[in-house]
Write a structure and sequence with these properties.
heterodimer; A: alpha+beta; four-stranded mixed β-sheet; 1 helix; 25% helix; B: alpha+beta; four-stranded antiparallel β-sheet; three-stranded antiparallel β-sheet; elongated
Chain lengths: 61, 290
């Protein structure tokens, strides 16, 4: 199956703003969030997009 | 040996040589391999033979023999299919694909080259039989010149002005000049992009050209050619590092973001200027009939 334009994961330091069917990774600090996003980008073959300073999403294009 | 032997040989040789002359392996990397070349040379030879033999057939009042030219036409349409399939199949393994429009352009070129060969052999043999060998030589030379004119399309440098612009980040958004390219989240990716990336702005020289460079196939062709010539800083599994072209909706300019292996702005500009304008991308909205 080929997925197009799907949010594979969200990485956030916010407590209760992100929900949904994609995996949500809650992080303590900005550095942790960036490290998780970088790892997930490589693992999932997606692109890490920054929506705000507290929220990254990994999108498969 | 009969009266037609030399004219036929002359026509076939002229056609085959023309096919060899039109087969140039360049940065487009196609056809590079020996077997691919043999296929095209053989088909060129067959085309030359078909074009040549039509003339003696007519002279011998065998008019039905001309109908096999239609057979040739369907045969060469098959060549186009073959090229399209091969290239489309391989395209998924390119780091920066050619895109279907480019592939179609290449396939059409391969088909039409065979028709040019038929045409050349036809004319050359006709001149040989109707006048003499010197006339045939003259006709062959004229056909070579005509073919080289017909086979050279225009280049991107003829229709747009190319300027280099700095890449900038506004938050996570990557911009070339004022054209938004994409959202790059991770700081280390942003650093890589600023270090390796280059940005160019292509401004159309007239209204008709706006839609030509807006064509997604034409844009992909630019990216492919630049990546093939200058290398590309990316690998499979790094979708964030992807060369992209986006359009300024206000005035039709396009912003080209590339990630070459060697950062040489003058060479990149030259490569972009030499990208062929794809036949299928050309539109003339300013031209109306009636």
């Amino acid at each position: 199956m080929k997925m197009e334009k799907a949010i594979l994961a969200s990485i956030t330091t916010l407590d209760n703003k992100v929900q949904g069917s994609a995996a949500v990774f809650k992080c303590e600090t900005k550095e942790e969030m960036e490290a998780v996003a970088a790892n997930l980008e490589a693992i999932l073959d997606g692109i890490a997009h920054r929506l705000s300073d507290q929220l990254y999403i990994i999108v498969k294009h | 040996m009969n009266e037609y032997t030399y004219p036929i040989m002359f026509g076939i040789i002229a056609g085959t040589v023309l096919r060899v002359f039109m087969m140039r392996t360049d940065y487009r990397q196609y056809p590079t391999y020996l077997h691919g070349k043999i296929i095209h040379l053989s088909l060129g030879f067959i085309a030359a033979a078909l074009g040549t033999i039509a003339i003696p057939s007519i002279m011998e009042k065998e008019f039905t023999a001309v109908t096999f030219l239609t057979l040739a036409a369907s045969q060469f349409r098959e060549v186009r299919n073959m090229e399209r399939n091969t290239l489309a199949e391989m395209d998924s393994y390119e780091l920066v694909p050619r895109g279907n429009t480019y592939i179609e352009g290449i396939a059409v070129a391969f088909e039409s080259r065979n028709y040019l060969v038929i045409f050349t052999s036809f004319i050359v043999t006709l001149c040989y039989l109707a006048v003499n060998m010197w006339a045939a030589l003259g006709a062959a030379a004229a056909c070579f010149v005509l073919s080289s004119i017909l086979m050279s399309g225009s280049k991107l440098g003829d229709i747009v002005t190319i300027e280099q612009r700095e890449l900038t980040f506004d938050g996570a958004g990557l911009y070339v000049d004022n054209i938004y390219i994409m959202n790059i989240g991770l700081p280390e990716r942003q650093d890589e992009i600023l270090r390796y990336g280059m940005g160019f702005i292509l401004t159309p020289k007239s209204f008709n050209i706006r839609s030509t460079i807006a064509n997604l196939g034409q844009r992909q062709a630019i990216l492919h050619d630049v990546s093939v010539t200058l290398g590309v800083f990316r690998d499979s599994g790094t979708p964030a590092l992807v060369p992209l072209i986006k359009r300024d909706l206000n005035d039709g300019r396009i912003g080209v973001f590339i990630l070459p292996q060697e950062k040489d702005p003058a060479r990149a500009r030259e490569v972009i200027a030499n990208v062929p304008v794809l036949e299928n991308a050309i539109q003339k909205p300013g031209k109306r009939s009636g």
